[in-house]
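Changelog-adjacent note: as of this version, every example in the card shows the full chain rather than a window. The one below runs 298 residues end to end.
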Amino acid sequence: MGVRRVHDPDRTWYLARAESVRPAVILTLNGARREVRAFDEDGTLIDAYDSPPDGVAIQRARQPPEACGMPAQMTALRDIVAGAGAWELLGARQAGNTWREVHRVEGRYVVKSFTIPLAATHYRRPWVREHEALTRAPAGCAPESLGWFEETRDGQRLIRFGRTYLSGAVLDVFTETHVEPVARLLARLHRHGIVTDDANPRNFLIALDGRMLVIDLGRAHWGRPDRWPFHWWVGRELAKVRRRGFQWRDPPWQVFRDRYFREQAFSPAAAAAVRASAGLTTALRQVRMVLQGRSPWT
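Full-length structure tokens:
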């Protein structure tokens, strides 16, 4: 267990709102996962931070917005959910111990619901990742987050996350016509320190005005784009674009790759790190497919 001030500038650079957080002490509760909790002088929980080795995810404390500096839109999401009359189910599935549902609400919002048994202690928190990634994303690249809140219902933990709804065409595969817009979009996100980590074409949308946007950042990672760990994640992303987006089709992939690197203007060392990560990620996956008796080009 260790203690430090929440305003330690060398350790809290990733907090966009660090300068506005009240003085507090952070207690490290679990050294393996580097989970920390922030309390004020009265012992009130302000924030909870889950900082895995590959990045930083921020989980807001379960306190009223005014108690822990949570954005006002999180309160607005409660009002939207409470007053909504038209709910359209877009999808539902079981993921581990979490039941997930996605609804379009009032034709204006997307609300994702996550139902988890109270006894569960280990589960993914995509609502945290998606909110933070959408908050950090540059304008015009993704929907706007409405935040998230948690409540207990029927003996289970229910988390709702909301974002704005965008009209347009969801993609099934990246074609030659998508090469340049996808390259520009991903390059812009990466310059802002965001990796989607799920380059499935169905997570991308062509809006009515012709813009390409990413609409699902539930697996996103973020970090400092000038550091090598982030270059590793970028390489993984590009490998997924080749495999899942272009489905191993070399001509559009090569055009995309060249356009992406022109957009990024990496230093030689950074470009080499990204290319090495992409190549290694592809090779390791192909070896795994062969060992499983499947085609390496699956």
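Structural remarks: The helical segments are 65-68, 73-83, 126-136, 179-191, 228-245, 250-264, 268-291.
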